[in-house]
Amino acid sequence: PTSDAGKYLVASGVAPRDFNTYGARRGNDPVMARGTFANTRLSNRLAGDGQTGPVTVHVPSQERMSVWEAVSRYQEAQQPMVVLAGKEYGAGSARDYAAKGPYLQGIKAVIAESFERIHRSNLAGMGIVPLQFQDGESVDALGLTGHEQFSIDLEGELKPMQSVTVTTSTGKSFTTTLRFDTAVEVQYFKNGNILQYVLKNKLDQ
Predict the structure, then answer these.
(1) Helix (H) or strand (E) holding 199
(2) Cα(111)–Cα(164) distance, integer angstroms
(3) Mean pLDDT value of segment 174-184
(4) CA angle at residue 49 from 46 to 54, to 5 degrees?
(5) CA angle (109, 112, 113) in 5-degree steps
(6) How many CA atoms within 13 Å lie on the side-chain side of 189?
(7) In this structure, are residues 179 and 161 in contact, taking their beta carbons and an 8 Å threshold?
(8) Closest of 75, 128, 137 to residue 102, by C-alpha
(9) How far is CA 201 from each of CA 74, 83, 170, 204, rounded to the nearest angstrom?
(10) Cα Rg of the chain, angstroms
(11) What is the mean pLDDT of the chain?
(12) Would residue 33 be called left, alpha or beta, if left means φ above 0 and alpha means ψ between -120 and 50 degrees?
């Protein structure tokens, strides 16, 4: 009951013996949003090299806290978030909530060296922008720390696999590849996500 999801369940009157698994509660959005990035083996470099688990730093205050606490603060400030990642982002058991959770948290884009195939598609379906570093570029190569603010140029008519410029608050600028691999994925993004895209098409019929 020490995790943010556990605290939520206790506050909702659920006894710890009845918690079960995240998979068993995948229909409970508040639990799954709190469980996103809560893997105890997950490495978050904002919290320091070697730090694993759902711990991060809230950049504006520089306070160390749980991922969900930081997310809550960003949501309250209406501040969208970006994930910086390495290779094969999203690899592992392909679960839809690996993309739904970040969507619920308010993450708008993931910039990675490469993406696990199914997870990239799921991100696109949730309207989260998958951006891929150019060959030879990475968080380390570009000297990114995660403390920057990011401006992503998505103006104009978007096309699958086009180049997208990302500019940071520290003055750095680099080019990424938009990993919307098909035209329909661009439409998901334009409409908000796949569900809104389907509903809009139904209403237009």
Answers:
(1) helix 194-204
(2) 11
(3) 98
(4) 55
(5) 160
(6) 24
(7) yes
(8) 128
(9) 32, 30, 41, 5
(10) 18
(11) 94
(12) alpha
**Which residues are paired to 178 by β-bridges?**
131
Element (H, E) at 190: helix 183-191
Residue 65's DSSP bridge partners are 56
Average pLDDT over residues 180-199: 96
Report residue 142 as tokens: 């570009």
Q: Count H helices, E strands: the chain?
A: 7, 8
Q: Give the whole-angstrom CA distance, residue 31 versus residue 28.
A: 6
- How many Cα neighbours within 13 Å face the side chain of 158? 24
The model's pTM is 0.93
Count of all residues that appear for the chain in the document: 205
Residue 174 DSSP one-character state: E
Instruction: For the chain, give percent helix, strand, coil, nearest 5.
Output: 35, 20, 45
Average pLDDT over residues 163-189: 97
Nearest to 132 by CA among 190, 84, 94: 84
Burial group, residue 162, by CB count within 10 angstroms (0-12, 13-18, 19+): middle
